[in-house]
Write a structure and sequence with these properties.
alpha/beta; Alpha-Beta Plaits; 2 domains; elongated; single chain; binds nickel (II) ion; Aminopeptidase; 4-stranded antiparallel sheet; about 375 residues
């Protein structure tokens, strides 16, 4: 018989251990070893599915299969807190709460194991590496571990939400996060004789203004779209016009169509300005993580289960940040949810300090959600 008070304390201890030994994306070797060891203490078998870091555990048997996912990586941030389980790795910190996510999903795995014989299928528990670099979800997808999975669920803690609060939404939730680099190649020369040059600085100024018209004049203003130029580099002296200017920025959208339109429009504007000013402009567009789109029925089930578990349920706002869980939801139906962690300082802040009492309720929540998702699939015959 599982003693929940013991488990509660155990999850906190494990979270502290993870927090003490944070590891960067793709380097979560010690974390993976720990997770493996802790799960084996509860007779839960794990498999790597060929992943270098991270691991996967199955509870129950047969079909359908639903997955629950925790991310396990930390950030290159130097912790500025002095609690007893502070990071011992200089310059690395669990500043996004993935230690809490891991501890919660460990708890779900153990709670599910205790009721394994009652499960109507398999719960596949994913401890995913490298969320922060937006590559881990693709590694898990490429491993084949999700090929037979009918639904997938995951969460992020949200510092702005009070403890005991839950939020999600049907449809678009997190954004497409894309990045672009622009190189303007002109002809440098004497600042006093600009007519002999093709000044890339003036061209950069035109381009910076012109790309702002993409959101205001090319995209339906009811759609979300942000275009931000975040870096401008040119020149080395006060009296020399440089040969090149480099710009960099990001585009945030929620629909695939708007995403494509922005890319096309950005390239078109660059070409037009290049022609007008007789310079060369190249645009290098890098598709980042896809927008996270929750399936409506699973988002509704996730809300229903949260209500039953005693959470205060809210409608989540749209986010313009990214979450690589979106890659799963491009291929598998499911839902991603927010759980309040009530931290004064936000995610990725060196003094971020989430309230860890969210762990056990979150563990119970995902055990209940996975169980009910299996039952729903079973009833609907979606096996
Ligand atoms: Ni995170």
């Amino acid at each position: 018989m599982l003693n929940t008070d013991v488990l509660k304390q155990q999850l906190l201890d494990w979270r502290h251990e993870l927090h003490r030994h944070p590891e960067l994306s793709g380097q979560e070797h010690h974390t993976t070893e720990n997770l493996k060891k802790w799960l084996s203490e509860y007779n839960i078998k794990t498999s790597s599915w060929g992943l270098k870091t991270g691991l996967i555990a199955d509870i129950g048997s047969g079909y359908p299969i639903v997955a629950i996912r925790a991310d396990i990586d930390a950030l290159p941030i130097h912790e500025q807190l002095s609690h007893e389980f502070r990071s011992i790795h200089t310059g690395v910190m669990h500043a996004c709460g993935h230690d809490l996510h891991s501890a919660s999903i460990l708890g779900s795995a153990i709670l599910l194991k205790a009721k394994e014989s009652e499960l109507k299928g398999t719960v596949r528990v994913i401890f995913q590496p490298a969320e922060e670099t937006y590559s881990g979800a693709y590694d898990v997808l490429n491993s084949g571990a999700l090929a037979q999975v009918s639904a997938i669920f995951g969460f992020h803690n949200v510092p702005e939400l009070p403890l005991g609060t839950f939020a999600t939404r049907a449809g678009a939730f997190y954004a497409n996060v894309d990045r672009f680099k622009i190189l303007i190649k002109g002809i440098g020369g004497h600042a006093g004789r600009p007519h002999e040059t093709k000044d890339p600085v003036v061209v950069a100024a035109q381009l910076i203004s012109a790309v702002q018209t993409i959101t205001s004049r090319s995209i339906n203003n009811l759609d979300t779209c942000v275009v931000s130029i975040t870096q401008v580099h040119a020149g080395t002296s006060w009296n020399v016009l440089p040969e090149e200017a480099h710009l960099e920025g990001t585009v945030r959208t929620h629909s695939a169509e708007v995403r494509k339109t922005v890319e096309q429009k950005l390239k078109q504007i660059a070409q037009g300005i290049a022609l007008a000013y007789s310079v060369d402009i190249s645009v290098d567009w890098d598709n980042g993580p896809a927008a996270l789109i929750n399936s409506t029925p699973w988002a509704e089930l996730s809300q229903k289960v949260a209500q039953a578990q005693g959470y205060e349920v809210q409608e989540a706002p749209l986010y313009l940040i990214g979450e690589d869980f979106g890659a799963y939801l491009e291929r598998i139906p499911g839902a991603f949810v927010s759980i309040g962690s009530a931290s004064t300082y936000g995610l990725h802040h060196p003094q971020y300090q989430p309230n860890e009492s969210l762990i056990f309720p979150a563990a119970q929540y995902f055990a209940a959600l996975a169980t009910q998702a299996l039952e729903t699939l079973h009833t609907n015959n979606e096996v």
